[in-house]
Amino acid sequence: MFRTDFVLAPRTISVRVVVHPARSLINSMLLLNITDLRSGLSEWITETAASFTPEFARDNHIAGILAGMIPLGDDPLEFPDLIERMRRLDFTEAIPQFISEIAEHMDVRVDDLMASRDSFIKHTAEHMIAKGEELEPEHVGAAYDLLHTPEVCGAFLTTHLQRLWDLYFADEWNRTRSILYETAALFDQLDLTDLTPLEAIQAVTGRDMTNFMHDEEQINEMIFVPSLHTGPYVSNWGPDRSGRTYLVFGARVPEGIANVSTELSLRDLLTQLAALADDTRLHILSLLTQHTELCSQDFQHMLNLSQSAASRHLRQLVAAGYLNERRRDLNKCFSLNGQRVQETSASLRILLGRK
After folding, report:
1. What would the pLDDT profile of 87-106 be if each residue is shown by its tens digit?
2. Which of 22, 139, 166, 268 is the most exposed place for a label (fewest CB within 10 A)?
3. Distance CA 295, CA 62 (A)
C-alpha cells in the first residue's frame, strides 16, 4: 500500500516590539529586589537599590509579591496613568482573582494556600526556591496580611508606585525613553512574520532559549518590550489565557541594521562587556577553551566556588550569550559560544573605528 508521512509545519506566532512604559518600569521595580541574585543588571538598578532605606526596600519587596494585582493591561500606559488606574481599582474584586491565579501558578489549592499565614509563607517560599530565588518570610507574611485588608492593600500599592515614580522613575524614564523608542523603530525594519516562538526570541533578543522555552508552548502572540535596566536577562510575563506573552529584553541593535545611533550601540556593547568584567567569569570562559564542555560542579571544584556563586556567574554568562547550556542527566553543563565572542570583538572594532 502506498503510504505518505506528513510532517506538520512549525507553528508560527504574531510578533511585535513595542515600548510599554508601565510594564517596563514595573519590571524594573522587580529587578530592584534581586540585585544580590542577578549579576549584570544595569548600573542604575544596582545604584538605586543600594540607595533605598531599609523601610523602602521592604515595601518594594512586598509590592513585588503583590505585583500580579497591578492592572498593566495591553495598552502601552505611561506610568502616571497606571497609578491613576490603580486608584480606581476595586481591590475587593482584584484580591480574590489574584489569589486564584497565584494558587494555580503554584499548583496548590486556594484553601491550602490561604489556610494560614504560615501556609502562605511555606507555599510561596517553595515556589520561589524552585525558580532559584528566595523571599524573606517577613515580607511574604506582610503581603498575606494585606490580602485580608483590601482598602489597606490598595492604598499601600498605589502609594508605593507613586513614591517610586516621584523619587526614581520619572527622571530615569525621561532620560532613557528616546533610546527605547529608537529600539522599537529599528525592529520595525525587520520582517518578524512566520516565526516560531523560539525563532522570535532569537531574532529579537539574540538569545537561544531552547533550554528555557519550547515551541510547543501555547503562545499565540509575543510582545517584546525593550528595557535599559534588565542587562542580558529576559523577563517572561505570560502566557496569559489568550496565549499572549510579554518579554522584557535588553535594548539592543538588531542584527543586519546599519546606521544606528552611537548611544544605542554603546549600551548594547556595555551589556556584553559587563559579563566579562569579572575575574571568575573570565576564568570560566578560559576553562571552556580547554574543555569542550563542563558542568556546574566542575566549576565549583576547579575554581573553589560555592554552588550559589557558580550559579550566579554561569547564569550571567548564559544570559549574555557567551555560554551554551544543556542538561545532562540532572546536571547543567556548559560550552563556549565562540560566535558570541566574535560578535563582541567585532562590535569593539566598529566602535573604535578599526577595519
Report:
1. 999 999 999 999 999 999 89
2. 166
3. 35
Residue pointed to by grid coordinates 515600548: 19
Q: Which long-range contacts (CB under 8 A, 24 or more apart) does 139-142 make?
A: 139/58, 139/61, 139/62, 139/65, 140/65, 141/117, 142/58, 142/62
Is omega for the bond preceding 21 within 30 degrees of 0, making it cis? no
Enter the DSSP assignment of 253. Answer: P
**Is 0.90 surpassed by the pTM of this model?**
no
**45 vs 99: CA distance, rounded Å:** 29
* Separation CA 69–CA 83 (nearest Å): 12
Q: What is the DSSP letter of 55?
A: H
Is residue 4 in some structural domain? no
Angstrom distance (rounded) from CA 136 to CA 268? 34
- Give mean pLDDT, residues 26-50: 93
Taking the alpha carbons of 129, 131, 135, 141 in that order, is the dihedral positive or negative?
negative
For β-strands 244-250 and 221-227, DSSP reports them as parallel
Length of the chain: 355
Segment 311-349, tens digit of pLDDT: 889 988 988 889 988 887 778 899 999 888 888 887 787
Nine cell digits for residue 319: 544570559
Report the C-alpha gap between 355 and 339 in whole angstroms: 19
Q: Measured between alpha carbons, how far is 301 from 65 in angstroms, rounded to an integer?
A: 36
Tell me: the pLDDT tens digits for 161-193? Answer: 999 999 999 999 999 999 999 999 999 999 999
Number of domains in the chain: 3
**In this structure, is residue 8 part of a structural domain?**
no
Give me the domain span that covers residue 194. 188-250
Determine which helix (DSSP H) or strand (DSSP E) holds 48, and give its type and residue range.
Answer: helix 43-51
Give the model confidence (pLDDT) of 147-158 as tens digits: 999 999 999 999
Cell matching residue 214: 519550547
Q: Where are the beta strands (DSSP E) in 176-293?
A: 221-227, 235-237, 244-250
Pick from 176, 200, 231: which residue ends a domain?
Answer: 176
Give dist(CA 11, CA 47) in Å, integer. Answer: 42
